[in-house]
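User: For my dataset I need records formatted as: sequence, then structure tokens, nothing else. Please produce one.
Assistant:
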Amino acid sequence: MAARIDKVVTSGTFSLDGGTWDVDNNVWIVGDDLEVIIIDPAHDVDAIAAAVGDREVMGILLTHGHDDHIRAVVEARDRFSAPVLLHEADRMLWDAVFPDEAPDDVIEDEDSFEIAGQTLQALHTPGHSPGSVCFLLEGEDGGGEAPVLFSGDTLFNGGPGATGRSFSDFGTIIESIRERLLPLPAETIVNTGHGDSTTIGAEAPHLDEWIARGH
């Protein structure tokens, strides 16, 4: 049986470069009836805990270090007694929020995490931030289940994540999407950090349009 994926939408703010914006974040909970991994536990730990229920949280994976994705993570770590993992290249973003705390471990490219009998693989996809990571949940062999990509803010329904602020770069995010994400099977479901889900097949034909428009 494929891993169960729960989505919780939480609301809060994102602050960077002197500005603050209201945002809704997608929190993804991947697992089965006994244990889960949480991806980006943003804003509202009570709402996330309600979705987790009495299942054990095996780990908290962060797609990147922007404050809307991490500001609640120390509270989540304490609530769930679970380790927090972040790519080292985003440590400066973490330190801006938690100067006296540290993640429990680092995520490196192609690290794998086992949950519910399936594997989540980390894909380092810099551009939105230097340490941005996507997580690929393998499809079930012979089960007809499509792979699922948790893309954070690297790829959205309609194009790449924003690159107009500090520590971001448009050329880098395009390279990440072209080289790491678009080669995935077209049926791969893309569960994003904000907004609606999409598929690799729906987004791939638009790469040249994104390059032409520059965002």
